C-alpha cells in the first residue's frame, strides 16, 4: 500500500511543478526576449514520476498552450490527491477489519 501513496505523491509534485512553470510562462509572456520553460516528466524505475524543467526551443509566449497545461496539471493534481485519500480510506478499513 505504501507504493500507492509514493506514486501519488510524486504525481502531486509533478503536477505542482507543471502548474508553477505554466504560471511563470503566463506571468512573463510580455517580457521582451522571454524564453518559455517546459516540464519533462519521466517514469522512475521504482515507482512514480520525476520531472525536470528546461527551456523551450521557441522564443515568445504561447498563452493557449500554457492555459491548457494549467488545466491539465490541476486535473492531474486532483486525481493524485484522490488516490491518496482513497488509499488512506482503504488502509483505515483494513485496520478496522483486523481490529
List segments where confidence is low: pLDDT < 50 over at least 5 consecutive residues. Answer: none
Please tally the helical runs, counting DSSP H or I stretches of 4 or more residues: 2
Overall body shape:
elongated
Order of helices and strands: HEEH
Structural class by SSE content: alpha+beta
- Tally of structural domains: 1
The level of helicity is 55-70%
Write the layout of secondary structure elements.
Blueprint lengths: L1 H26 L7 E9 L5 E11 L3 H36 L1
Helix pairs in contact: 1-2
Tags for this model:
99 residues, alpha+beta, two-stranded antiparallel sheet, 2 strands, 20% strand, elongated
Give a quick precis of the structure.
63% of the residues lie in helices and 20% in strands. The chain has two helices and two strands.
What would you say this structure looks like, in words?
It is built from 2 helices and 2 strands; from the N terminus they run H-E-E-H. By secondary structure, the chain is an alpha+beta fold. The chain has one domain. Strand 1 (35-43) and strand 2 form a beta hairpin. Helix 1 runs antiparallel to helix 2. It starts with a helix and ends with a helix. The model has no long low-confidence stretch (mean pLDDT 88).
Amino acid at each position: 500500500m505504501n507504493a500507492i501513496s509514493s506514486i501519488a505523491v510524486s504525481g502531486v509534485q509533478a503536477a505542482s511543478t507543471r502548474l508553477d512553470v505554466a504560471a511563470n510562462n503566463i506571468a512573463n509572456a510580455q517580457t521582451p526576449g522571454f524564453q518559455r520553460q517546459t516540464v519533462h516528466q519521466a517514469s522512475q524505475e521504482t515507482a512514480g514520476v520525476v520531472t525536470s524543467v528546461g527551456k523551450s526551443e521557441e522564443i515568445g509566449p504561447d498563452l493557449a498552450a500554457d492555459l491548457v497545461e494549467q488545466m491539465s496539471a490541476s486535473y492531474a493534481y486532483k486525481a493524485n490527491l484522490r488516490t491518496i485519500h482513497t488509499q488512506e480510506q482503504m488502509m483505515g478499513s483494513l485496520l478496522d477489519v483486523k481490529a
